[in-house]
Amino acid sequence: MGSELIYRGHETQPTPDTYSPKPHKPWVSVIRPIRYMLREQRLVFVLVGIAIATLVFSLLPSSSNNHDYTPISDSHFPTESTQLTHRFFYQGHGGYGSMNLGGKVPLGLKRKGLRIVVTGGAGFVGSHLVDRLIARGDSVIVVDNFFTGRKENVMHHFGNPRFELIRHDVVEPLLLEVDQIYHLACPASPVHYKFNPTNVVGTLNMLGLAKRVGARFLLTSTSEVYGDPLQHPQVETYWGNVNPIGVRSCYDEGKRTAETLTMDYHRGAGVEVRIARIFNTYGPRMCIDDGRVVSNFVAQALRKEPLTVYGDGKQTRSFQYVSDLVEGLMRLMEGEHVGPFNLGNPGEFTMLELAQVVQETIDPNAKIEFKPNTEDDPHKRKPDITRAKDLLGWEPKVSLRKGLPLMVTDFRQRIFGDHKEDGGATASTTMSSN
């Protein structure tokens, strides 16, 4: 029997004559996406969110035509030093630009706080600078090895989330992310800098940090770069008269080298730098018995000791109160000029005149005792601050007779009220006219 191929199912296949298509459904293309979105709840949430946002923005008044700006007066800023800062802002990791809104900024705009490191921030000048920066709204990192600084100077900021304290010696490298660096870390009195000079290495490390993170760097140099000056008063263009191998050269030449390094990093590596040459400064929190003339005179008068005048007492100095210096440092950092700038009070006093002011303030019966002068002690020191006046709008406000009583109050408390330090004991130190 022959085989036969059979196509199974051919009997059920419709013939072309009997085929009829399904009826057309016009809403199927709309219904299917709706069913899918109902199954996928996330899309529903997206659509609901878009609808709510559209409703909110349609109800809000349009601000496209609102160009009414109100200038911010100086009263919006916490201190005098911030009168200039509202003109500047920082971008990125320390980049510098200027706000140019025709002298006006939107009403209610707040200044962006910066992240700032202050080396030597627990010291005399550094702690006062930290106070101003914290009050201005910045975040401050204090780096100090407490060689001359005191933790007590910054303890009132403990617990503030914008304040940090690192015990560290700047002769060792340090990695931080900051916008600005105020480099104050260096022993500034003869008693201390002759024992531990740290100018060059510490400055080099901090400049390296500024280069790595793009921070602006301010060097606190000194009037000692002028040495025993042959020009009076001293202007920033004067190159000085320094003994490179004298007993004070570790400080004098160290600061001159620090200025050189600062300018080399500025020219060679593009680091934004500022240089301040600080003249004699006094005020609360100075180290007691540190060899500087104001602190020694005040401590001696309080302890009923003779005021020690070295030489004939005719050598001159200019004394600025610490708040004036801090104001100048902040204006310099926020300004557009590299410097160097002399920051000091041009009011000139002989050592005898200073002793008499201390007598008037503390004890009219205090005795004056003369001793041989110290080596390389400058005969005259007076800043020319014309450049600071013209370019920074800065000049000192506090006179010696007004500021000295404030310092005396602090010293009296620390000598007689705080026996943990100094304890009222007499210390024999070599005094300088710094």
Task: Characterize the structure shown.
- It is a single chain.
- This protein has a domain at 87-285 and 320-345 and 382-399: NAD(P)-binding Rossmann-like Domain (Rossmann fold, 3-Layer(aba) Sandwich).
- The protein is 33% helix and 14% strand.
- It has 11 helices and 15 strands.
- It has helices at residues 28-39, 41-59, 124-136, 190-193, 199-213, 249-269, 293-302, 322-334, 351-361, 386-392, 400-417, and strands spanning 88-91, 95-98, 115-119, 139-144, 163-167, 180-183, 216-222, 273-278, 281-282, 307-310, 316-318, 320-321, 341-343, 348-350, 368-371.
- The strands form 5 sheets. Strands 5-4-3-6-7-8-13 form a 7-stranded parallel sheet, with helices on both faces.
- Helix 3 crosses helix 8, helix 5 (199-213) runs parallel beside helix 6 (249-269) and helix 7 packs parallel to helix 9.
Features:
434 residues, alpha/beta, Rossmann fold, 7-stranded parallel β-sheet, two-stranded antiparallel sheet, disordered C terminus, NAD, UDP-glucuronate decarboxylase activity, NAD(P)-bd_dom_sf, transmembrane helix
Residue windows where pLDDT falls under 50 for at least 5 positions: 1-12, 62-105, 419-433
Largest sheet: 7 strands, parallel
Proportion of strand residues: 5-15%
Q: What is the name of the CATH topology of the domain at 87-285 and 320-345 and 382-399?
A: Rossmann fold
Average pLDDT rating: 78
The CATH level-2 architecture of the domain at 87-285 and 320-345 and 382-399 is identified as 3-Layer(aba) Sandwich
**Rg of Cα set:** 35 Å
Strand order of the largest sheet: 5-4-3-6-7-8-13
Structural class comes to alpha/beta
CATH H-tier superfamily of the domain at 87-285 and 320-345 and 382-399: NAD(P)-binding Rossmann-like Domain
What's the CATH first level of the domain at 87-285 and 320-345 and 382-399?
Alpha Beta
**Would you count the extended β strands for me?**
15
For the record, give the distance between the C-alpha atoms at the N and C termini, rounded to a whole number: 133 Å
Residue share in helix: 25-40%
SS summary, helix count: 11
> What is the string of SSEs from the N terminus onward?
HHEEEHEEEHHEHEEHEEEHEEHEHH
* Overall form: elongated
